[in-house]
Amino acid sequence: MDDLGATAWNYLASSSPAGTGGTIERESLADRARKAVLELIDREHLAAGDPLPSTGALAERFGVSRPVVREALSALAALGIIEVSNGRSATVRPLDPHLVRFYLSRALGESRSDSFSTLMDLRGPLEVRAARRAAEGLAASGEDGAEERAALQQLRARLDDSLQDSELYPQLDLQLHQEIARLSGNRALHGLLEAVSVPLFRAMQDVRAERDLHGLVGSEHEDHLQIIDAILAGDPEAAAAAMEHHMRSVENFTTAPLITS
């Protein structure tokens, strides 16, 4: 599938607005039908690959014409929510993280004057929860978690070795936060944090550049080590506390006079 952002934008840009060939009534009906299909998927807990009712059945159910239903289905297909094939009922597509990423990217973009604070407001509580859940998961995994522990220990060593590498360290920083989200075992939590990975990485690069400029590299690394060690120890409270301290430290650093002046 093409990049969701481009797909969604092309669809929206090609839609006929009221007064340029389409009618307000028709657009309103198609919009209502789109919402009704989404509610149907959610209410009936349809999973990836599950079929929707036929176009005729949906038209009867929603009290609209078949062309209106087809228009609604085409819109949802363009957004990657369903898949439409000739001769078959539409089916629900697997979850696409690009959809959430597209929305969050737009939302952050609209907060141009304070996009970093908006990002931190979003990720802060999620990161703390992820660290807690990751520690709980490793504590409960026993010997089954040996591979995850080894990978986290290896990442810890790489962070140690690359502290003075201004290009590599932010990459490993992002990898650490993604790994913690994965270890949380919460797919929704992981998906949300993954969705903000692009603006997050840019922010990490900007923060590292400021640390380099002012000779302040190091404190963030100590935070990372404390978070990792608490997770490896299977201590949820310590992991959450370490992550919360890290989130506050990052936000305070970026709002200090040396950054904003």
From TrEMBL:
| Zinc-finger is among the record's keywords | no
Keyword Cell wall biogenesis/degradation tagged: no
| Entry's Gene Ontology molecular function annotations | DNA binding; DNA-binding transcription factor activity
The record, for InterPro entries, names: GntR_C, TF_FadR/GntR_C, Tscrpt_reg_HTH_GntR, WH-like_DNA-bd_sf, WH_DNA-bd_sf
Q: What are the protein's UniProt keywords?
A: DNA-binding, Transcription, Transcription regulation
Q: What CDD domains does the database record attribute to this sequence?
A: WHTH_GntR (cd07377)
- Pfam families, sorted: FCD (PF07729), GntR (PF00392)
Give the protein name, as stated in the record: HTH gntR-type domain-containing protein
Q: Which organism is it from?
A: Brachybacterium ginsengisoli
